[in-house]
Design a protein that fits this description.
Its EC number is 3.2.1.31. The protein is of the alpha+beta class. α11 (508-518) links the parallel β30 and β31. α12 runs parallel beside α13 (604-620). The radius of gyration is 25 Å and the shape is globular. The protein binds beta-D-glucopyranuronic acid.
Length: 626
């Protein structure tokens, strides 16, 4: 969000890098999957819940709430998982709560998981915001910092200790943001006792979305055999009509005698096979993975079955969907399978009524249907990693993804120190580890609009450079002027005729010209837009009306169309749908820059964009004539 008076040119700069080579394996984060050797048990539904409203928010730890059922240590309410807890009740203190909240429930673990010593049982949380501690039957099994990404713990030996008892899972989650968290924030105590009650504090943030909290994605128990496939990495290429998959598999828990890799096509027919923990698969008459609207058969996925046979142990099997495609960037183009790709897409949020940021299949499927209706071929996961199921949908439908980490609102100079850098690196590592094999993911976004106006600090760019194999770098405005040495693609966010020169649509072309001339790299207009209150009309257009939103988009589109054949490689509207923000004088119950309402009903701009995107698809994509 912009504050009037800040300097337009410095608003931007979140910079991207395109995939490099296969990651070194270092503990996997494969999506849990059922197979003949693995089982999955979802723990979604109603959990017991209590927010720790004590002044120091520490009562739960002082009284060891994890040692017993929460119902035994005080009052609880029902809380759905997955969901943000903020909008579930009528209580404004829970909506705006900062600090620890506690969840627990009991689970009946299948007897065979307990009796069979060869079964490994893992507890996995798809994501919880922001800091989580997990106990099983009162014993701590893991803690994790950061929302939006999964974490897990093996609990096999714990559940075998008291095999006849139900297993009690307790999760404490704290949404406090500090200078070192991602996104950062600060807690400010108001010490003036004449104006504020004792202990009064606020959570300051510098990003424009509600800081939803709670357990946002599924909690699962899943099993693997004792010796198990822990991680798989693939990298794909092709020459003429032969595809190549380079793979690497890591097995944990013991010695694996043999690893068989078998590749099947979409119809289940055998394509290629190999043995060993690393190697290559040649795919004759390859069917490439293509984006939606670029090919008549987008999102083609092979299935790579990894089968391990361990000495004196049950084997394991994991099947990874693999799309064969290449990504390259030239000085002026973004190439997918050596063909120029033009991003016509959206920025999104994981956000909806009641659930907040909680995972919700109906919403996800509705959003995909709307995106396809619009003619969208890509989106950015603004401003944090989205659920894995969403990326799986993108793989299948051929929707291209710019995968963003939660590096948003990095504005305070104290958030540029080593502690923040280390955490940022860990988060990037977790993100890449989780998402590296999705063909839909073509770029990593390191940060959204960090304070690039601050003096260059080469120490942190150096450290980022050392992470392998993906080179992801934030650079400053000053670096940019020297030519942006680390960057493949520049993404610019701008709000001309909105935050600056309000109402002056006539100046948009000139401002855009100036910007684009400056950056000698392929450029994506990664945000542009205007708030529109649905149903508000005015002609000639005025700000906040549907007419103004349309007119503003149109004035940008005119410039995009002039630049499209030069270095301009894409446009992503801000935003796909209206979304909730913190309360403040710049927002009337949330950000209204959606082209759909928060309930996914179209504003006039949705029709304008639909017309444009389908025209673009016909001009820039590879649609076959009907
Ligand atoms: C951009 C931010 C985005 C905001 C948007 C806005 O990246 O998160 O929601 O401004 O103000 O600068 O609508």
């Amino acid at each position: 969000m912009s504050v009037p008076g800040s300097f337009a040119v410095l608003r931007v700069l979140w910079l991207l890098s395109v995939f490099g080579t296969v990651l070194p394996l270092d503990g996997g984060m494969l999506f849990p999957q059922e197979s003949s050797f693995r089982e999955v048990k979802e723990l979604n539904g109603l959990w017991d819940f209590r927010a720790d409203g004590s002044p120091n928010r520490n009562e739960g730890f002082e009284k060891a709430w994890h040692k017993r059922r929460l119902t035994e240590s005080g009052p609880v309410i029902e809380m759905p998982v997955p969901a943000s807890y903020n909008d579930i009740t009528q209580d404004p203190t829970l909506r705006d709560f900062i600090g620890w909240v506690w969840y627990d429930r009991e689970v009946a673990v299948p007897a065979r998981w307990i009796s069979n010593e060869g079964t490994r049982v893992v507890l996995r949380v798809g994501s919880a915001h922001y800091y989580s501690i997990v106990w099983v039957n009162g014993e701590k099994v893991t803690e994790h910092e950061g929302g939006h990404l999964p974490f897990e713990a093996e609990i096999s030996s714990l559940i075998r200790k008291e095999p006849t008892k139900p297993c009690r899972i307790t999760i404490a989650v704290n949404n406090t943001l500090t200078l070192e968290t991602l996104p950062p924030g600060t807690i400010q105590y108001m010490n003036d006792s004449s104006r504020y009650p004792d202990g009064f504090f606020v959570q300051n943030i510098h990003f424009d979305f509600f800081n939803y909290a709670g357990i946002h994605r599924s909690v699962l128990l899943y099993t693997t055999p004792k010796v198990y496939v822990d991680d798989i990495s693939v990298e794909t290429n092709f020459m003429d009509n032969t595809g190549l998959i380079r793979y690497k598999v890591s097995v944990q828990g013991g010695f694996s005698n043999t690893l068989n890799i078998t590749l099947m096509d979409k119809d289940g027919h055998f394509v290629a096979s190999s043995n060993g923990s690393s190697g290559g698969l040649r795919v004759v008459d390859v069917k490439l993975w293509w984006p939606y609207l670029m090919h008549e058969n987008p999102g083609y996925l092979y299935s790579m079955k990894v089968r391990q046979h361990a000495h004196r142990h049950v084997g394991d099997e994991y099947t990874l969907p693999v799309g064969i495609r290449t990504i390259n960037v030239t000085n002026t183009q973004f190439l997918i399978n050596n063909k120029p790709f033009y991003f016509h897409g959206v920025n999104k949020h994981e956000d909806s009524d009641i659930r907040g940021r909680g995972f919700d299949w109906p919403l996800i499927v509705k959003d995909f249907n709307l995106m396809k209706w619009l003619g969208v071929n890509s989106f950015r996961t603004s401003h944090y990693p989205y659920a894995e199921e969403i990326l799986q949908m993108c793989d299948c439908h051929g929707i291209v993804v710019i995968d963003e980490c939660p590096g948003v609102g990095i504005k305070d100079i104290r958030s540029f120190r080593n502690a923040s850098l280390s955490h940022h690196l860990v988060v990037m590592d977790e993100l890449v580890r989780r998402d590296k094999n999705h063909p839909s993911v073509v770029m990593w976004s390191v940060a959204n609009e960090p304070a690039s106006e601050m003096p260059p600090d080469f120490e942190h760019t150096k450290a980022l450079d050392q992470t392998r194999p993906v080179t992801y770098v934030t650079i400053t405005e000053a670096d940019m002027d020297k030519g942006g040495p680390y960057v493949d693609v520049v993404c610019v966010n701008s709000y001309f005729a909105w935050y600056f020169d309000q109402g002056r649509l006539d100046i948009v072309p000139l401002h855009l010209e100036n910007w684009y001339r400056k950056y000698q790299r392929p450029i994506i207009q990664s945000e542009y837009g205007a708030d529109a209150v649905p149903g508000l009309h005015m002609d000639p257009p005025m700000m906040f009306t549907e007419e103004y939103q349309n007119a503003l988009l149109q004035s940008y589109h005119d410039v995009f169309d002039q630049k499209r054949n030069q270095y301009f490689i894409g446009e992503l509207i801000w935003n796909f749908a209206d979304f909730m923000t913190a309360q403040g004088i710049y927002r009337v119950v949330g950000n209204k820059k959606g082209i759909f309402t928060r309930q996914r009903q179209p504003k006039a701009a949705a029709f304008l964009l639909r017309k444009r995107y389908w025209r673009l698809a016909n001009e820039t994509g590879r649609l076959l004539p009907d």
